[in-house]
Specification:
Number of domains: 1
Distance between the termini: 84 Å
Order of helices and strands: EEH
Structural class: mainly alpha
Largest sheet: 2 strands, antiparallel
Strand content: 5-15%
Radius of gyration: 29 Å
Shape: rod-shaped
């Protein structure tokens, strides 16, 4: 137990280990929040793309019914 400034090496290692764990948890939380944020601004764009695809599919179906399908 080598003491420097009233703190042992083991105590410093334990404090560092605890800080690393806290940092990892915080980093994971921030990553989750960033992913949610990214999805929240992408969601309206995704919905618009799906609407356009659906509209184009309906137009294609209507055209196929009117003009017969080419096989």
């Amino acid at each position: 137990m080598n003491k420097q400034n009233g703190v042992t090496k083991e105590e410093l290692q334990l404090a560092l280990f605890q800080l690393e764990g806290t940092y990892r948890r915080l980093d994971q939380r921030l990553t989750v929040q960033a992913n949610r944020s990214r999805m929240s601004w992408k969601q309206p764009l995704i919905e618009k793309v799906l609407q356009v695809e659906s509209h184009l599919d309906r137009k294609q179906d209507k055209w196929s019914q009117e003009h017969g399908k080419l096989a």
